[in-house]
Amino acid sequence: MDAIRTRFAPSPTGFLHIGGARTALYNWAYTRRLGGRFVLRVEDTDRERSTAESEAAVLGGLEWLGIDWDEGPFRQSERGDLYAAAIERLLAGDRAYRCVCTPAEIEERRQATVATGAKWIYDGRCAGANHGPGCGPHAVRLRVPRDGKLGFDDLVFGPSGQDAREIGDMVIRRTDGSPLYHLAVVVDDIAMGITHLIRGADHLNNTPFQLALYAALDAAPPLFAHVPLIVGANGKKLSKRRDPVSVQHFRAAGYLPEAMCNWLVRIGWSHGDQEIFSRDEMCSLFDLAEVQRAAGQADPGKLDWLNQHYIKELPRDRLVRELLPFLAEAGTPLGPSAGLEAVADLLRERSKTLAEMAQRAHFFAVADAALRYDADAVRKHWKAAVVPAVKDLTGELSRAGAWDVAAIEAAFEAVRARYEGLALGKLAQPVRVAVTGSAASPGIFETLALLGRERSVARLTRALAELPAA
Ligand code: GLU
After folding, report:
1. N- or C-end of the chain: fewer Cβ atoms within 10 A?
2. What distance in angstroms lies between residue 199's CA and the mean position of ligand 1's atoms?
3. What is the CATH number of domain 79-227?
4. Where in the chain is the domain with CATH 1.10.10.350?
């Protein structure tokens, strides 16, 4: 068999939607698995809604996800001649005809038809009129067969299609000369030799008419695979306004591309009960035959779980690289350093996102004198009864022979023994507040070890001087 050819055909009228990203991912994984070629085609024929920023956002989103294409990006706005030539060919072969019905006339007839309870399709008034090029303002319509079925065996949905007579002779060129979406898509898919057309199920209803176009253009249609839409975890349609649906949103929130791809590939596809898929596994295992028909649910909890998994697994240097922009964003720019690597290692176990990790790394990045204290944590843990023990510990720590987890732990033990076996938590919490500003941090010994003796003691001293004890 010849190598398969697939395409992703985004319209650059907004951001990269997670539904679009998943369609691209399925195309990509399927193509990589079968050793084919993956084409990127930007469908920017809607000049009013298409923007260069949106195209950049869509392409940037794909690149970030690691979805690479073999050919393109092609732009439909640069392929007008091809569409014009195809329409001329259809006219010359009498597969299409000129239609002079005005919108007002059509509307009048449509209303009359609808009033009888029937469904309106173009009534074919101009079909036999043989209007020539000089007929004045006109659209061009495809002659769609009157009977038979425009059917296909969808690789996901199975036997699909529609009776030809329900479709009617649809417009393929507007009165202003611009081609319709269907025409451009089919002409391009033929020209690009697409063999497997994988797209969202919202296009399922477009396929019958497009099949009529393939036939009129004497081309064999590709195989179709319509992938079910993505809905929210509650089963409801995702709302662009209410729900996070852009890939950029997730990127900015600190999700890793590996986690995003893994999350997306599993919305609507499964392979046994496997949950974690590396990129290589996606490219060796993804199969359209296992894509389900029901809408796939986007469960944010699952994305958090996956992200945490990938954060844990990430090589240190990459983790630090990924974390840097989030630190800058959190207002604590910090260059890569040995210290930062250690912080990242300490925090990776307990961070769901890079943004959260950056928040948690703040205590380390911030200058000692600029550390801010969480008022609730101070109120709760900085108690007059324990302040003497903290003071004692500060002295113990500044005298400790070494600065590592064992030595720090020994200092705590010595102090606790002097205060009638003071519970570790009772001592650790105020120390945590003093050195991190909050009541939550990794293990207190590790935190102090990481911060270093000088900074730990400076912070404890500052807290002892400044914090009001309740
Ligand atoms: N440009 C269309 C869209 O963004 C996709 C067309 C197709 O896949 O056939 O929905």
Report:
1. N
2. 7
3. 3.40.50.620
4. 369-466
